[in-house]
Write a structure and sequence with these properties.
The protein is of the alpha+beta class and about 200 residues long. Helix content is about 30%, strand content about 25%. It has a 7-stranded antiparallel sheet with strand order 2-1-5-6-7-4-3, with helices on one face. β5 and β6 form a beta hairpin. The longest helix has 14 residues. The protein is globular, with a radius of gyration of 20 Å.
């Protein structure tokens, strides 16, 4: 399959109201969802089309809505790869998916982003006394709600469907195998990672 015409032979065109749900602005409902969302996925790509999706988490209400067409996400300490930011410098188009715990619907936002190192709103991005060094300013071009089907199919918010965490490898186990670490035990790596998360969260 190489054309949209071929695709539409299998998946029919949606009704007009599906296209019309894009309101291209941050209305009162979107503001409410953003204010209650502690977790957002940030999708970027470079000019060659190599993609990245980065999870962003903060206390609910930490994403600032500046006006009906702009919002801001703070950068927090991470692994220093800055994959998302390198992509934005190369290609400003971004996509955001706002998730609210217990809510099956999600808010999708697409737009153009700019990386900023200081602005008057930086004080409002402070968490636990730590002011961010960088933030992502997003000009909203598309905004619409996504239905609940993915969350209903996955039973994401039903704890009884969750796997036992002990049945999954720890990050220390994965890091030891992926990086070929010889001189540290899995327990020592896990302890180091846990300490880093505790000390360098903000």
């Amino acid at each position: 399959m190489t054309t949209e015409a071929e695709l539409r032979e299998i998946v029919e065109e949606p009704p007009q109201n599906i296209w019309d749900k894009d309101i291209a602005r941050i209305d009162e409902h979107a503001r409410t969802i953003i204010a209650h969302s502690p977790f957002v996925l940030l999708a970027t790509s470079n000019s060659e089309g190599t993609c990245d999706v980065s999870p962003r988490g903060d206390p609910a209400g930490s994403v600032l809505v500046l006006n009906d067409h702009q919002l801001v996400l703070a950068d927090r300490p991470g692994n220093h790869r800055v994959d998302s930011f390198r992509n934005v410098l190369d290609n400003p188009h971004v996509a955001l998916l706002f998730i609210v715990p217990g809510m099956n619907e999600t808010l999708r936002v697409n737009g153009r982003a700019a990386l900023v190192s200081d602005a008057p709103f930086f004080d409002d991005l402070t968490v636990q006394g730590r002011r961010p060094r960088l933030a992502l300013l997003v000009d909203v071009e598309e905004l619409y709600m996504h239905c609940a089907k993915a969350f209903l199919r996955s039973s994401l918010w039903k704890p009884e469907t969750w796997p036992d965490r002990k049945s999954l490898p720890s990050l220390g186990r994965i890091a030891k195998d992926h990086l070929g670490i010889k001189k540290m035990s899995v327990a020592a790596i896990d302890e180091t990672l846990a300490l880093d998360a505790e000390k360098n969260l903000y």
